[in-house]
Design a protein that fits this description.
Strand 3 (242-245) and strand 4 (249-255) form a beta hairpin. The protein folds into 2 domains: 2-142, Tetratricopeptide repeat domain (Serine Threonine Protein Phosphatase 5, Tetratricopeptide repeat), CATH 1.25.40; 172-293, Beta-Lactamase. Helix 3 runs antiparallel to helix 4, helix 4 (52-64) packs antiparallel against helix 5 (68-81) and helix 6 (86-98) runs antiparallel to helix 7. Helices cover 50% and strands 10% of the residues. It is α+β, with helices and mostly antiparallel strands. The protein has 12 helices and 5 strands. The chain is globular, with a radius of gyration of 20 Å.
Length: 294
């Protein structure tokens, strides 16, 4: 991640009007450098105010900072510029979910055509529909089979109904598949491990098909704190990622929210650049999932 940020920063310094500011701002966001990411995104939008993807990046930064109002404003702007912007619909659906307006969230996410639905949109829509069905007094008729909103939806009053602060608890069988869409092959694995060495999400099987995720996770207990200690000793700042090339595999690790660690492995023949890309993809999935369940 630091190497990517340095490269993108150099590119933007050479050409301040470049659209690379969007990739840089998002890389900074994913690295947790939210204040710097915010400055980069705002400056870029000063030069390019009509780019929906740029407003989407800025919305994500605001969301990570906990400012859902500003995030909502930016996603609304992205949709005004591009009414079919899937990520903006996903973001606004999530905001509406957090506000407790499940019906609006369902309608928002259902506007994305099935052919254009990303895994994130589909997963969020499934969570919202699950929450709607779980409400006391709600029946299956709340959501019709074709995904269209009911003809006469029941509107929820934010004053009378408490906010829903999170997505429903995940189905354990589905957490194993959390990173499937972020990986490219059967020789790749991704695990999200907490500080105590317990598996939060992901899966890992050996060559014989045995599930060894718990064993791998236990071996990784404390790796984040050890990395932090080493970085402090060397005076290099916070650790952002670690990549190890072994005889049989390439292993990449990065700190994730709430003291967890994300680990991605791939066969030795996998290009290192691709492994870094897989790590970034999986980290994005991990961040989104942890926001929903925390």
């Amino acid at each position: 991640m630091p190497e990517e940020i340095r490269r993108l920063s150099d590119d933007l310094a050479r050409d301040p009007s470049s659209l690379v500011f969007m990739r840089l701002a998002d890389a900074l966001r994913r690295a947790g450098q939210l204040d710097v990411a915010l400055r980069v995104a705002v400056r870029g939008l000063d030069r390019h105010p009509y780019l929906p993807d740029a407003h989407d990046v800025l919305a994500r930064i605001h969301a990570d900072r906990g400012d859902l109002e500003r995030a909502s404003d930016e996603w609304e702007m992205a949709l005004r510029l591009d009414p079919s912007h899937a990520q903006a619909n996903l973001g606004l659906g999530f905001v509406e979910f957090r506000r407790g307006d499940l019906e609006s969230a369902e309608r928002r996410l259902s506007t994305v055509p099935p052919a254009e639905q990303t895994p994130g949109v589909a997963a969020a829509l499934a969570h919202v529909r699950s929450a709607l069905g779980a409400r006391p007094g709600n029946g299956a008729a709340v959501v019709v089979p074709n995904g269209s909103p009911p003809a006469e939806p029941v509107r929820t009053s934010p004053r009378s109904t408490p906010l829903v602060p999170e997505f429903p608890p995940p189905d354990p069988s589905r957490t194993k598949q959390l990173f499937d869409s972020a990986l490219d092959g059967s020789d790749q694995h991704a695990l999200l491990v907490d500080a105590d060495g317990l598996v939060l999400a992901g899966a890992y099987t050996d060559g014989s098909g045995n599930d060894i995720a718990d064993v791998i996770a236990a071996e990784l207990a404390g790796v984040s704190s050890e990395a932090e200690r080493a970085m402090r000793h060397l005076g290099l700042g916070a650790w952002a990622s670690l990549l190890v090339e072994a005889d049989e595999a390439i292993v990449a690790m990065t700190p994730a929210p709430n003291g967890s660690v994300l680990v991605v492995t791939a066969s030795r023949r996998t290009p290192v650049g691709l492994v870094r890309l897989l790590l970034d993809r999986a980290l994005g999935r991990a961040r989104d999932w942890l926001v929903r369940v925390s």
